[in-house]
Specification:
- The protein is mainly beta and about 500 residues long.
- It is about 0% helix and about 50% strand.
Length: about 500
């Protein structure tokens, strides 16, 4: 049981007074209302704390599940003491009506009831599952708690936890990047923040995991870059795939960006994989091509730092610049952030920097529009910024703001979704839909980024960075940070269809 599900602020909690007599038990229930996924097992539905006088015996628990029973393979009931000693466990086939679970155990003063579910492999996307406690029957009578506050778990095609604090000996995990590779596999890359959750100059590794089954299972992490101490770490990865199928991963390392100087810089690196992310080349320092006295772009010669917008890079598919690899970067002198496009026309061997695309921006993403123009989306607090390039990212037009995406200053992702039969494209944009770092949602544009529709919520509680990709079957994947508390971030993969994403609220 992951105690995180018992503590989330969105969980529905109800103190349930049993009927009539004052010596009846009290039951405090916490529901889990996270998304779940097809084929998941042991998914928490509710946790109940049951307080008795310690002299009775619990004979049975009657459960009242809601939702289509075909979506569940089984329900699991567990009773334990507050110290974790197991009192009872039982597995039950899902049914359309009440389920009576014969228990027969003596009651301590306080016991914990946990109810979990196994989700069917073919569960219907968008359906919801939940369960109430209809009755607790003790030796001296049965008690029907009042119905708790409403809450349920919605089913997605897939929801998998990749990393949580403590996994693989790491204190924290952050900064997701996700790509679909030419062979159909998925590649997830992120920071392994070994000793704390801080940014550089902390000691951070960059690691990669692969999935060959649409995100249902993932390999153990392999290292792209290994930190060896303070100011000797790496972070903020971004991914692109060349026309030849090589994977390019760019990232930064060394000093903190605000403290970066010519003598003590934050450096920009590149590593590549020719085998689908299983192995990676030694990180190559490409900083002199981007900023500093010898930079090819005169605008960048007075700069003292540069960092990439982590997540997705871009490889152009059409026009005279087809095959060009681009990443958005935030660069500047002192604390003046300017956004540029960093691009390569030779598979990432050499790099050029565009003119300024956005003044006063931050982490950014670039997408190729249907007519070959490029659209850059820029992190800001408030209305998100944008700009357009008509020459493959070398020069940019007049910067603007999107009133529909009015959010916290946070990194997100933007990708193009090709519609079937060449009927056009959609743009998908993930970012917290809040002035705080919570409520990561997906905005959708049907007019090449001129306007954006109301967003669909993916994480209605604390959540930060995210990365998007389109899977070979046309469904959509997101890799995102959830629950950034003092206990640290978790990194989750979720998979859903375009039909689910575009369904009107309340349709299912």
């Amino acid at each position: 049981m992951n105690l995180r599900h018992m503590l989330l602020p969105f969980a529905a909690t109800s103190l349930l007074a049993a009927t009539a007599a004052t010596d009846h038990p009290h039951v405090e229930i916490v529901r889990d209302t996270c998304f779940t996924g097809r084929g998941n097992t042991g998914e928490p539905l509710l946790t109940a704390t049951i307080v008795t006088d310690g002299t009775s015996r619990l004979r049975s628990v009657t459960l009242a599940p809601t939702g289509d029973p075909k979506n569940l393979d089984a329900l699991h009931l567990e009773l334990a003491t507050t110290q974790g000693e197991c009192l009872f466990t039982g597995r039950y086939r899902a049914a359309a009506g009440p389920i009576r679970c014969r228990v027969g155990c003596s009651c301590p003063d306080t016991m914990i009831l946990r109810l979990t579910a196994d989700i069917a492999a073919e569960a219907r996307e968008g359906d919801r599952i939940a369960c109430d406690i209809a009755e607790l029957r003790f030796a001296d009578g049965g008690y029907a708690p009042e119905a708790p506050a409403p809450g349920s778990r919605e089913i997605l095609l897939c929801r998998r936890l990749l990393y949580a604090p403590g996994d693989f000996g790491s204190r924290n995990w952050r900064i997701p990047a996700l790509r679909t590779l030419p062979d159909g596999s998925l590649l997830a890359v992120n920071d392994k923040r070994k000793f704390n959750e801080g940014d550089l100059p902390e000691d951070i590794d960059i690691v990669a995991s692969r999935s060959t089954d649409n995100g249902r299972t993932w390999s153990e992490p392999v290292a792209i870059a290994v930190g060896t101490g303070r100011k000797k770490g790496f972070g903020d990865p971004a991914l692109a795939v060349t026309r030849e199928g090589e994977i390019i991963c760019v990232f930064v390392g060394g000093n903190h960006l605000w403290h970066s100087t010519l003598d003590d810089p934050q450096l920009s690196y590149l590593s590549r994989s020719t085998d689908g992310g299983r192995t990676w080349s030694t990180p190559e320092n490409i900083t002199p091509q981007l900023w500093g006295p010898e930079a090819p772009n005169p605008q960048c010669r007075a700069y003292t730092y540069s960092f990439f917008g982590s997540g997705n890079g871009l490889t152009l598919e059409r026009g005279e610049h087809a095959g060009r690899i681009l990443f958005a970067a935030a660069m500047g002198p002192a604390k003046n952030l300017n956004n540029h496009a960093v691009y390569s026309d030779d598979g990432g061997r050499t790099w050029q920097v565009s003119d300024i695309a956005f003044r006063g921006g931050d982490e950014a993403k670039i997408v190729e529009l249907a007519d070959g123009r490029l659209l850059m989306s820029v992190r800001r607090h408030g209305q998100r910024g944008y700009n357009i390039s008509c020459d493959g990212g070398a020069t940019w037009g007049e910067q603007g703001l999107w009133p529909e995406i009015n959010t916290n200053a946070c990194n997100g992702d933007m990708i193009r979704y090709p519609l079937p039969d060449k009927a056009g494209t959609l743009l998908l944009h993930s970012v917290p839909n809040s002035m705080q770092r919570r409520n990561v949602s997906i905005f959708l544009s049907r007019d090449e980024g001129r306007t954006w529709c109301d967003p669909k919520v993916l994480c209605p509680y604390q959540s930060v960075y995210s990365s998007l990709t389109v899977l070979p079957d046309g469904t959509i994947g997101i890799y995102l940070e959830e629950n950034p508390t003092p206990a640290g971030c978790e990194l989750w993969f979720m998979n859903f269809s375009l039909d689910w994403l575009t369904a009107p609220a309340g349709r299912r």
